[in-house]
Write a structure and sequence with these properties.
15-stranded parallel β-sheet, Leu_rpt_41, Leucine-rich repeat, LRR (right-handed beta-alpha superhelix), single chain, alpha/beta, leucine-rich repeat, two-stranded antiparallel sheet
Amino acid sequence: ALPGHLLRGLLPLLTVFHLERAEDAARRAGVSTQPIWRKLWDDVMKTRPPNSESITCWRKKFLETFFSNVLHGVLDVSSDWRLNDRHFSPLLHSSPHVSQLTLCNMLQGAVELTAEHNHKVLENLAGSLQILKFQHLLSCDQSVRRSLVLLLHRLIHHGSVSQVSMCSWPVPDTVLLVLILSMSAGFWRSGNALAYHGSPCGLCREEDKAQSQESAQEGAERGYTAEREGSRGENQKGSPEEAEAHMNSVLSGLRSPPLQNPACEETSSEVPCEHTSIQGGSSHRSSSEQLSCHPVPRKTRRRLKPAVGRKRRCLRRSRGHYADPEDLYDFVFTVAREDNSGLLDKTKTTEGENTENWTSSSPGSPYTGHAGCKKRGGPAGIFSLKAAHRFRSVSTLELFSIPLTGETCRALSNLLSSWVSLENLVLSYNGLHANISCILSGLRALSRHPECRFRVLRVSDMFSHMPCMELVRCVLSALPQLHTLSVSFDLKNHLDGSRPEENPGCSKAEIPESCLEVLEIRFPREPLHTAFLLPVLKASKSLQQLSLDSATLPCPQELGLLLEVLKECTPNLKKLSFHDVNLAEHQREVLLLLQDPGLQEITFSFCRLFESSTAEFLSEIINTVKRNPSLKSLKLPGNRLGNHRLVALADIFSEDSSSSLCQLDVSSNCIKPDGLLEFTKKLEGHIQQRGGQIPFTHLRLFQNWLDQDAETAQEALRRLKAVCSVVNDSWDSSQAFADYISVM
């Protein structure tokens, strides 16, 4: 209960442990601890965090980064007296603040987190962690994989992780990759693989017990109801007391712990398409289980409802029947055959038990063949999804710079087909080529599931297997419920000297009406033909944002045709972006866009707007924006504005302007400090004329030549920040110019 001024002087003298404990007291006294946490960051981390201007809580930022650095052994807590406190357990006390965690290389972090002495740390992470990332992974042994299984089971199946991202894995270990994908999708085999330090997962056991009690109660109620109906059918023979005694006898029998808890028969709904649906299978019984004298009533089948944000009930399994931890991955490295009749071959394990092993082409395998995926034998090491149980799954999956082979694509496709909790999928630089059709096949099957939540698909790669617009048509035809679609390619595919033939199913089929709101297309220097874009826009009446990148205009009239189509087909369009599209000869169309009353944000990024323009064109742009009260954001990066054009843009906010422009982006425009200062002075004059009120709130100045006169730049920025929020960087223009010359 210290006064605020005393507390403010005391806080910088506290260790991290005591600073954490003083947070509530500081909040009650109205004292902010943010400057102290920021100074801690500067003193301990000694780096500038990316996007520091967007950090709202330095306490969380520090503790989250601190946790990661300690976990990976890159920070010594004895290096600073504020960290070196005998009461302070680095991982334990910082873990509640961790919402994003990255595991690297040999997964040493997974081994550390699943160690017995870090049990409470893992429990904290299960409640706080939202994003789990894997980066630069390497092959690892079975003991490390066991730790990874435990970690994923706790953080995904029984935790709150909603996003799994993997990046920079040039030569992925197929078994490890499919393991992470399968567990992210909520699949895992029976609980004998989920032992924690020799004991079964406690959460699974608790849920098993709850399900057993629920099942017993339902069975008792059914028995009681059947008894009453039977009594009524025999002219009320037998008293109510006798019926109640019968129910009690049933209950007493069910209270005896059975030797076997049969697996809950929850399955995903059958997918009505060519894709094989994935279902959870019941576990087999041992000989001792078959001798149980108390059969447990099975619950009726019901539709699977995995949901992110709530814990899935684990499927019941035999108590006391857990395999030795050394056998955890035995099932991963087995391959069997499926005969023509569809029956499974039974192979004997080292323990003499029958296990169901599937080939890569079996219906329950991750490598199931289906339309769009060639049927070929996959490698050993993939477990059967039909024999797997279904747990809670994540809603976002991201794969960056990870080559996906045909076998891996088939595995992913089969997982996607019933991954009903999945909302966002990002596939970036995976070398998909023709395998994109395999991925789409799985997503098409998913889209037909009644509980499908899939809304966002982003695909980017080095080479395009087919023309961009054809791929867009294929995706929208398969996934009409998409809200966001992003397709991006760097280069055309010139292999074999020609492009692949068009898919007539995509090119000629009419696109169904879609829910698309955001469409982003990055063309690999392909011509932008409005005729090909027209069917997409006609089917996307809800489109609000359109981005066209790196397209070429085949004729001068093409942009005009595009504007007519946009006006006719997309009445809800609010944001329009052109990047690296040469608009130097399309001044009329640029002005038409700037006066469009429906658009709220327009981006002309590196579009060479002023390459061959006159001073009159700039004046027309300014006057058009001044008369348009609908436009809120204008982004003009990379158009060589220079000092004189920047100063002229200040007239957008003159006294006679009706503009509502809030955001202006003039990054990468060769602006020097003296030009920025003159712009600032002119802006201040307009503000004074308007009585101190203008709508302008944000200015972006990245990668300009402000380092050429630091003193003038600082004065300009200081005065600008009194007017609006300014975002800039410490860019070395001389080095950038040298880099540019070196690659010419």
